Every structure is written in structure tokens, then in C-alpha cells.
């Protein structure tokens, strides 16, 4: 047996946090060294942070990244380590992995396939490196190999696939396999999305099997730059068999996952495979020989640090809870905010937002320990005096119910019950007099009284907008982060008041649809995440029909009466926006999915969706930043672009109505 201990380290980095990023890298390296790992894979662009955006183009950022790399290099004694950073070659910028061994820089491998879809914009800053090209770079008078390289330490060959490289059909690993690479390292910055872990797991396992190699995958961890959340996936596989999997969505600043691989075993698999066709002569792959001796080690058991929640029958709900809780916790501490403020209306969206803030604190305390959590938030006034997670949550989270004459006891009591259950501070503001003052100003300007018959939307919106200054004031007084509470379904059709319920610095649920959110709240009422349990007080929310509660109570206002059933709205949104179907194509699909609705009523709802979607792009452009959770995101800054001014699908809607009427006559 030829045994080698390898490690995948995940780190929670912050763009341009030079000292913090360096120290977390060094801490991960130290832990890997203490566990006697010889080969360590750290994530893509971990020195700078992945989310630096246009700062990557700064020459000073590039210089500083190289300086930090050189500071770290001496600490790689007895190890072979990958570290990501931006680097230029002949005036062109590349996304590069630096290879260090035994205290020295030994080479640089640029990324060959750039992520330019979805929330990723790598081609804006970087160029892809040509396959098979090897060059040299000079740093401080020393020359280093730079390009499409593999590395030899002892008699082991090591190759790299950098994140997107493994997601394409022509993977670099397939070329590296033809010259007998033993280990492939994949430093990644792959954002969280529902179900994405399973996809990664497949290409790690399949890479290790098809390439007859061991495969080490290390992803970033946490809410790095504001919108994207990284789940900290760490996997080590060999010969199509998973050896080690690290915990996901952790609140730790770094984690190290290790496994012992047997080079002789993967070589045996290669030797007996009829499919393996070596290409030693034709291969363009240059090999860098590294003077590094792999130590003799003892066999070790496989290690799976997967939490119980990973096998839950409600995995999507578990992932949503933990991803958003981690995103909120990181956003709070990285923005140095003094806490959270939520305008708690007694409805589903604001209740979900407040509950997720509470869960962020509970989950962080459970994993880090209560004392360590307090230490990470020690800059917040009153945190050090908290003697329990309940008192800490009360210090961190303020919930405000703001009543007008159209508010009812049902929503007030629901808001109180939820705030009490999650141990938040609860405030009850009466704003009806302020609403009346604004209404009088409007009447003066129009020269007539305002009424619900003639001024419905304006009278609704002024209530929502009047709620904004009070919570902003409280947030300013606390130095806290005001959270807006609008969901993705509302964003699709503009069912939100700008500068009202959209007010805030962060909108944690804007990436999720209302139908799922209601299902999640029901689950939270009765079951809840593994290890944390249910929140029965949510029953007061879940028994209500969703309502903006802005019209007089005798009107019986509900969201679905104003719009359409939420499940239908979300299905139309997926067809029209995610899948880019025309109104007629959407109508055909909805006929099959929702046979319980009348054909003409379906067409009216679809027309309403397309018209509201087109009119309200300007609102989506102004939404507070939100977390990316799936491929149905509507955030125009990172995912779903649409013109603010457009033709509004008039021709396409006319074609749909022609088909509806023709089929009705038939």
C-alpha cells in the first residue's frame, strides 16, 4: 500500500479582508498539519475572497494578494497546498490556483473554464487559460511555472480542476487521467442552491471513478459577500467510492476534512480497466517535479461528518432554514450591524423573517457554543451581558407591529405570540394619526376628499409607506439592520409598496416563493429543523389567509383575491420567467397543471401576471439585496435581467386570447 493523507479545508472568507482571510487560511493549514495531512486543498480565490467583483481589476488588489501568498508560503512546511488568487500574465488577469510545497511556491495553475452564467460574472474580470499551454512568471527575481500543469511529488501525480472546470463536458481531469494522474484537487467557490450538493457529489464520485484517481473537493463556506451563500461542501473520493464528507452550512470560520487514500489501489483499478487508454506521447500536459517526500502513514477509517438533517425527508426545508440562518448570521457580523429590526405585521412573510433571525442565533449557539457566539458578536451593546440564548436574541432582534384603523386584533395577537415565542423585543406603534395627516395632504393637493372608490391603491400604499419611517428610526437608534419582508412571488407581480414593506437593507426571503414559504411555516409549526424542533405559536399565522390588511376590514382583502392563487402564480412565474415560455405556451402548461380552473379564468390570471411582471421591473431593480437560493431567482443585479420599459407582451397575449376563444368555440 502507498498511503497518503489528504485534506479539504473550507473557509468562511470576506472579500478584501486581507488579515482575516490570511488568518483563517493559516488556522486551517495548522489543523490539517496537526492531523498529519500531506496534501491540502483550499477553495478558489480564498486569499482575496471570491466576491471582489470589479475590485479584482485593481492592480493594488492583485499586488496585495501576491504579498499575502508570500506571507503564507513559509507555513506550508511538510505540506502540499493550493491557494486561490487573481494573477496577471502579460497584462491579462487570470483566476489562479497557487501551488505551495514545503514552504515554497512551486507553480501556478490558471482556470480554463470560467463561470459566466447565473450569478457568476468571471468573464467580466478574468480570461480563460488555453488548454495545454505552459508559461513562466517572474516574482521577486524568481521564475515559476504558470499554466496547464500537473505536479509530481514522490511518485504521485497531482492535477487540478478549478470549480467550473469540473462542470463542463471536456473536463481537464479527463486529459490529466490519460497521463495517469493519481490525485485531482478541486478548489471551488460554488454557491448554494437547493439540491446542488447532490450534483457536486456525482461529479466528484464520477471523476474519481472515470479518471481512476482520488478526488478532493473544497468549497467556500458562509455568506461571503452579501448575496451568495456557500455551503462549505468538502468531499474526498477514490475509485468511485466516497471516503469522507464534511458538514455543510456550518457556522464555524473554517473546517478541515481528511481521508487516507491508497495510491496503489487506484493504480490497480487503472491497470485492470479496459477503458483506460494512456497517452504519454501525445499529451501536452507539462509535469512540474516538486522536491517533496510523502511520509509513511497508517491506514485510517473513512469519516463522514454529515449531520442528521442531511437525511431528512424534508431536505429542502432543512436547507432553506440553515442556509438563510447562516446567511443572516454572517451578514450581521460582517456588516457590524447592531442587530435586526423586523416590521412584524402578523402575516406569513414577516413572521418567517423574524423566525429565521431567531434561528440564526440558536443554530450559531448550538454549533459554536454560547460563549463563542457572544464573542463573535461582542461589538453589539448588551451581548456580553446576555446569560442565555433567549436574552441574547432579545438583545439582537426588535419586532415592531404598526397599527392603523384597518389592522385587526387577529394580526396583533399573532405578531405578539410569534415575537414572544422567538424571544424578540416587541413594540406596538400606532400610526393611524400619521396616515391621516398624509391623507389630508393628498386631499388638499387634489382639491377633493380621498375615497376607497377612487383612490384605492394610493390609500393602501400610504399606510405601507407610513410604516417605514418608524422602523427606520428604530433601526438607526439601535445601529441595527432593517430587514424587508417581501417574497419572490410578490416581486414577480409588484405586489409590494416601494419605500413601504420593501424598506430595508436586506431582504432575506426575496429569493423564495410564497407557496413554499407557507409550506415551510406549517412545517415549522409542527416539526421544525432537526435538533431545534417546532414553533407552535406559528399556528396564529398559519390559520390566516395572507392579506396586506390595507383596505377597511369589511372589504375582506386577501392577497390571492387581489392576485390569483399563489400556487398558480408560482407555476406561471416558473414557466414564464425561469423557462421563458410565451403567454400561449404558459397557458397550455397551466391547463394541464391546474384542470380545476376554468380556461378563461386561467387566461385572465396569466394575462394579469405578464402585465404586472412587465410594469414592475423598476421595483425589482430597487429591492434590497437578497440571498440566492435557486434557479428561479428574480434579482436583476445577479440573475434575471428584464427591461424596465418593454412592450408588455401585448402581441403574445393577443395570440393567447385568440387560442382561448378558438378552443372555446370548438
Automatic annotation (TrEMBL):
InterPro entries according to UniProt: C-N_Hydrolase, C-N_Hydrolase_sf, Gln-dep_NAD_synthase, NAD/GMP_synthase, NAD_synthase, Rossmann-like_a/b/a_fold
Residue positions binding deamido-NAD(+): 461, 490, 619
Keyword Iron-sulfur: no
EC top class named in words: ligase
Pathway the protein contributes to: Cofactor biosynthesis; NAD(+) biosynthesis; NAD(+) from deamido-NAD(+) (L-Gln route): step 1/1
Domain of life: Bacteria
EC number of this enzyme: 6.3.5.1
Annotated positions binding ATP: 485
GO biological process per UniProt: NAD+ biosynthetic process
Purpose of the protein: Catalyzes the ATP-dependent amidation of deamido-NAD to form NAD. Uses L-glutamine as a nitrogen source.
Protein name per the record: Glutamine-dependent NAD(+) synthetase
Organism: Blastopirellula marina
Top-level taxonomy: Bacteria, Pseudomonadati, Planctomycetota, Planctomycetia, Pirellulales
